[in-house]
Design brief:
Number of domains: 1
Strand content: 5-15%
Number of helices: 7
Largest sheet: 4 strands, parallel
CATH superfamily: Divalent-metal-dependent TIM barrel enzymes
Structural class: alpha/beta
Helix content: 40-55%
Order of helices and strands: EHEHHEHEHHH
Distance between the termini: 50 Å
CATH class: Alpha Beta
Length: about 180
């Protein structure tokens, strides 16, 4: 495909257990490695889906940071996941608010989106919904994202830096959790 169109860019989305237990590109590290083996690695980037990182036993914010460090994070699909068996595509932040905050924070702190990158919501309705509420998962995910963005931007970076430098991680954890619960 890279040879077919010299202007095309390709994004690789890692999937640790799809299709059907055959793992071709399970993590973003694998995706970046594969991209580097192409004849145009500068035109191959990554799309991270939160649930796929969780299914691989990884933290989505770590995967995002790694991809950004290589300038390969070109798009993100935010959602949540409870367990390791199958891709649930739960509403963003519905399982783990702290994990969701970490994703919002790393994206915001590193200017993700400022160069045309996209944040999408890869979520689906829980079970069978009535037609009039069938898209609530989208508005719920967006609302949680925007609220977590407010919380992240309200955190005192000086306090965080001081707590990290003194290695008082319990207090740092308490500070962030208190910010999440108000």
């Amino acid at each position: 495909m890279l040879d077919y169109d010299p202007k095309i860019k390709i994004m690789i989305e890692s999937k640790p257990n799809e299709p059907m237990d055959h793992t071709y590109i399970p993590t973003i590290g694998h995706a970046i490695g594969l991209g580097l083996l192409t004849n145009a690695p500068e035109r191959v980037g990554c799309l991270i889906e939160s649930a796929h990182a969780i299914l691989a036993g990884l933290d989505p914010s770590d995967e995002m940071g790694y991809a950004m460090a290589h300038n390969k994070l070109w798009s993100v699909h935010l959602n949540d996941q409870n367990g390791l068996k199958y891709d649930q595509d739960k509403s963003f932040g519905s399982v783990d608010l702290r994990r969701a905050l970490n994703q919002v924070r790393i994206l915001d702190r590193h200017g993700f989106g400022n160069n045309g990158e996209w944040i999408g919501l890869d979520v689906k309705a829980m079970r069978t919904q009535k037609a009039e509420v069938a898209t609530k998962h989208l508005s719920n995910s967006r609302e949680i994202f925007l609220r977590l963005l407010e919380i992240s931007r309200s955190l005192d970076d000086g306090k965080i830096k001081q707590l990290v430098s003194t290695r008082d991680y319990e207090e740092l954890d308490r500070y962030i959790l208190k910010s999440l619960i108000g």
